[in-house]
């Protein structure tokens, strides 16, 4: 601890980074009965805290290392921090990025004078290429999180928070990817103010640190979520794991919907549009308040970055209502006879706002409705379902059904009696030219594609729903082809939303 504290206090981050503000979210504070503060790392020159650790590491290189130049693997904020620091210090910088990297991020690296090498479909493959280039060129590899000087640079965020708010401070909520930010912050806070809780926040689908701490060793995730790409790390660092095990009090995991709600809360408080990873701190803070019912606390959420792709905002807006527990989605079966739809809307929906409505004829006896309604709290979902049952309407709560939220609500349409043995899969396609052709080449054979629905998410991957008419295919043969393809996929053939509406 003494070593890391000294490195934080003697860091060189302010040669490139700025001291960001600690702003109160006034309306949210009044609404929750707590004092809520936002640490605004979106105010950095590269709109992310990553400049702190990258610059501190590069600034400490000796003359011979500087002469060789630096290299890093990153598809996001670390890349921009490295090239910004390298340009300021007059060093050559190469960034290896996955071929799935959006053009806006590639352009940002080039704008700061970095050389871009595109390789692989994900960070792991890009990192492997970076290591090969290090061996070939002798350049210095700048790790995004598992390095003492990088961790110390990120730890300066905590130093600023304690100086900017020297009074009551109950908890700090910090996003976790590889763990560099929270490791540096937690070590510093616990050395000076051990009574302050340091709480990490991870998405459910990128929770490598939470799982590692529970297992007592670093684990490697088979796959990571693609929405909060800034924290999509399969394996946390050795240094960061050891420090988190010592100094972090708790980790809160949040869903995509809760994360979108956090992004909206930051926007309403600051008018800053943060990237998904940047909204994690706020999402965790809000979930903490909901779960504990606390009041009178002073809570800080770290807004870690604001490099948001504009195209992603549509997806965020769609998922926010569920994340805020203001929308519930239901599949409802109604009689197929005159007046039944009007009766349902009048008697069941009543004065609630309808946020989504899809109607599909099923048979001469019944029809299926996909309906979204406004609610004020989660308990209303159960009440609404019970009212439907009492009135004779069979219903299924789809609020937590990701297939329904991502695809079904946009393509309600029923199936065909001529289809034989249809199987449904969700895929995450890399947003690169040729991704669909590669898929078709790998899966070609006797199977007919019976359904195809694509949803652009504004990130490195697109969400695709595909149906195959499999007939009497040998068991496991299709999965073998899909595994060779290398795209993440999930079968949804037995999902009730699919059975009802597709």
Strand and helix layout:
Elements: H1 2-9, E1 22-24, H2 26-32, E2 35-40, H3 50-59, H4 63-68, E3 70-73, H5 77-89, E4 93-97, H6 103-111, E5 115-118, H7 123-137, E6 140-141, H8 148-164, E7 171-175, H9 180-192, E8 197-203, H10 208-215, H11 238-247, E9 250-254, H12 256-270, H13 280-292, E10 298-303, H14 313-323, E11 327-335, H15 340-349, E12 354-361, E13 366-374, H16 379-390, E14 395-397, H17 402-411, E15 422-430, H18 435-443, E16 448-455, E17 461-469, H19 477-485, E18 488-491, H20 496-501
Parallel strand pairs: 2-10, 3-4, 3-6, 4-5, 7-8, 7-10, 8-9
Antiparallel strand pairs: 1-2, 11-13, 11-14, 12-13, 15-17, 15-18, 16-17
Please tell me about this protein's structure:
With 502 residues, the protein is an alpha/beta fold. It folds into four domains: 14-47 and 148-320, Rossmann fold (3-Layer(aba) Sandwich), CATH 3.40.50; 50-141, Rossmann fold, CATH 3.40.50.1100; 325-400, ACT domain (Alpha-Beta Plaits), CATH 3.30.70; 411-501, Biosynthetic Threonine Deaminase, Domain 3 (Biosynthetic Threonine Deaminase, domain 3, 3-Layer(aba) Sandwich). 42% of the residues lie in helices and 21% in strands. The protein is built from 20 helices and 18 strands. It has helices at 2-9, 26-32, 50-59, 63-68, 77-89, 103-111, 123-137, 148-164, 180-192, 208-215, 238-247, 256-270, 280-292, 313-323, 340-349, 379-390, 402-411, 435-443, 477-485, 496-501; strands at residues 22-24, 35-40, 70-73, 93-97, 115-118, 140-141, 171-175, 197-203, 250-254, 298-303, 327-335, 354-361, 366-374, 395-397, 422-430, 448-455, 461-469, 488-491. The strands form four sheets. A six-stranded mixed beta sheet has the order 1-2-10-7-8-9, sandwiched between helices. It has a four-stranded parallel beta sheet with strand order 5-4-3-6, with helices on both faces. It has a four-stranded antiparallel beta sheet with strand order 12-13-11-14. Helix 6 (103-111) links the parallel strand 4 (93-97) and strand 5 (115-118). The protein is globular, with a radius of gyration of 25 Å. The chain starts with a helix and ends with a helix.
């Amino acid at each position: 601890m003494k070593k890391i504290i000294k490195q934080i206090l003697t860091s060189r981050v302010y040669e490139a980074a700025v001291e960001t503000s600690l702003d109160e979210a006034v309306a949210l504070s009044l609404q929750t009965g707590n004092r809520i503060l936002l640490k605004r790392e979106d105010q950095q020159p590269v709109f992310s805290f990553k400049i702190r650790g990258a610059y501190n590491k590069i600034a400490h290189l000796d003359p011979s290392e500087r002469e060789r130049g630096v290299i890093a693997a990153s598809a996001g904020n670390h890349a921009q921090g490295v090239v910004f620091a390298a340009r300021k210090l007059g060093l050559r910088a190469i960034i290896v990025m996955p071929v799935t990297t959006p053009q806006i991020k590639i352009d940002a690296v080039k704008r700061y004078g970095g050389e871009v090498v595109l390789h692989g479909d994900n960070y792991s493959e890009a990192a492997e290429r970076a290591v090969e280039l290090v061996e070939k060129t002798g350049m210095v590899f700048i790790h995004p999180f598992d390095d003492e000087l990088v961790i110390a640079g990120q730890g300066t965020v905590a130093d600023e928070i304690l100086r900017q708010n020297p009074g009551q401070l109950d908890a700090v909520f910090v996003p976790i990817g590889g763990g560099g930010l929270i490791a540096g912050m937690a070590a510093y806070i616990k050395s000076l103010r051990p009574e302050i809780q340091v709480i990490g926040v991870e998405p459910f689908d990128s929770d490598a640190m939470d799982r590692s701490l529970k297992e007592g060793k670093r684990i490697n995730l088979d796959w990571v979520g693609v929405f909060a790409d800034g924290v999509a790390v399969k394996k946390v660092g050795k240094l960061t794991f050891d420090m988190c095990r010592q100094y972090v009090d708790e980790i809160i995991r949040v869903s995509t919907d809760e994360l979108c709600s956090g992004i909206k809360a930051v926007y309403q408080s600051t008018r800053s549009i943060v990237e998904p990873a940047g909204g994690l701190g706020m999402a965790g803070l809000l979930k903490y308040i909901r779960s504990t019912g606390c009041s009178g606390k002073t809570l800080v959420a770290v807004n870690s970055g604001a490099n948001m792709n504009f195209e992603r905002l549509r997806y965020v807006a769609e998922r926010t209502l569920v994340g805020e527990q203001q929308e519930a989605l239901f599949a409802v079966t109604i009689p197929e006879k005159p007046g039944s739809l009007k009766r349902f809307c009048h008697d069941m929906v009543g004065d609630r706002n309808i946020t989504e409505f899809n109607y599909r004829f099923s048979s001469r006896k019944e029809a299926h409705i996909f309906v979204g309604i406004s609610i004020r709290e989660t308990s209303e979902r159960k009440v609404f379902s019970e009212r439907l049952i009492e009135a004779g309407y069979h219903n299924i709560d789809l609020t937590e059904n990701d297939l329904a939220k991502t695809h079904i609500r946009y393509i309600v349409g029923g199936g065909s009696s001529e289809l034989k043995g249809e199987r449904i899969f969700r895929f995450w396609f890399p947003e690169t030219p040729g991704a669909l052709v590669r898929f078709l080449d790998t899966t070609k054979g006797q199977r007919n594609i019976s359904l195809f629905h694509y949803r652009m998410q504004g990130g490195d991957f697109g969400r695709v729903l595909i149906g195959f008419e499999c007939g009497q295919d040998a068991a496991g043969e299709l999965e073998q082809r899909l595994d060779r393809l290398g795209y993440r996929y999930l079968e949804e053939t037995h999902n009730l939303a699919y059975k009802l509406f597709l």
